[in-house]
Amino acid sequence: MKTALKFVISLGLGIFLFSYVLEKSGLGTIGEAAGLFLGLEGLFLLFLTCLIVMVGAVRWKSILRAEGEEVPLMIVVRYLVKGFTVDFLTPFSLFGGEAVRIYLMKKEVGLKKSASSSIIDKIMDVTTHFLFLLFGLILLFLYTLSFQNAVIIYGAVIILVLFIVLFFFYLRAFRKESIVRQIFKIFGKSFASTDNGKVVLDIERQILYFFSSKKKELFQGMTLSFLRHFLFLSRTFFIIYFLIGSFEAGGAVVAYGLTILSMLLPIPASLGSLEMISAVGFGAVGMGFAVGTSYAIAIRTADLFVCFFGLFFFARLSWRGFLQKIFLKKEEEEEYVQA
Questions:
Q1: Mean pLDDT per segment of 10 residues, for the chain of length 339 residues?
Q2: Closest CA to 81 of 108, 107, 52, 120
Q3: Which of 179, 188, 207, 266 is deepest in the core (most CB within 10 A)?
Q4: Separation between Cα atoms, residue 240 and residue 245, nearest integer Å
Q5: In angstroms, what CA-CA distances link 82 with 180, 227, 320?
Q6: DSSP of 244-293
């Protein structure tokens, strides 16, 4: 009940922010953003979006291979898209889909490798998100030359928190020092001796081993992670070019940093937060409040394209499960009649 209430409140806040930004920038921004997807520009943006998904799938597949598992790429793509769909539709758009990915991949490689590979993949993603967010916020500050901007203050706090978390993780990981055991010591050692506690420790052991000992695989994974984020940045760059008709390399870095920042607000699908932060940031760097709104809607449209496939895969999975139950029931009835 409390979770549902929080979801409704955060969604209501998102709708309010979205309505406010649209009222200030004008309804024409929706048409301007949607118009990009009615021509070759839209096809190119969707192509870049598909490339982003494929690179992410190759990274996850390479992590699974490092753990001794060979999973077909298309299966990895399907599970990744489903996880992204849950990420996108839940508060904090950077997180949320890992549980779905772990559950689905468990059927292919078992719980421990499914969990460790998904968590390793997310840690790589968050690491590169942090770096692009840092560069974007630094450029935004150089554009505005002021710490008075609320976006910069909020971004600075997020950067500080992420830096502390990532620094602590990598420091412990390279030393092969357990983080979970420290948490167990705080809340009591009894859980560590249970079956679930042992599974958690085994998963953490695999994660620490990957980051401390598999240097080649770690380098490959981070290279793919940077490639994926450069594709994200390229998509941002071209959306801005299609909207204003000029190349803004620095503006694209700022815009992508703001996009990452909006994902860290507790609002489902970053509804309203992406529009608000982008509009304020674009206005600060001189590209215009309305252009920032159109940019946010264009980004949302491209991501919804991926979510459409994710929902299709979920519906297909549910329908398949429904049919299996029907056929199993029929088989049981036939066996009962024959008996």
A1: 59 66 70 80 90 94 92 91 78 66 89 92 92 90 70 86 92 86 69 73 90 90 94 92 84 88 71 74 77 84 79 63 42 42
A2: 52
A3: 207
A4: 8
A5: 28, 21, 16
A6: HSS--HHHHHHHHHHHHHHHTSSSGGGTTHHHHHHHHHHHHTTS-HHHHH
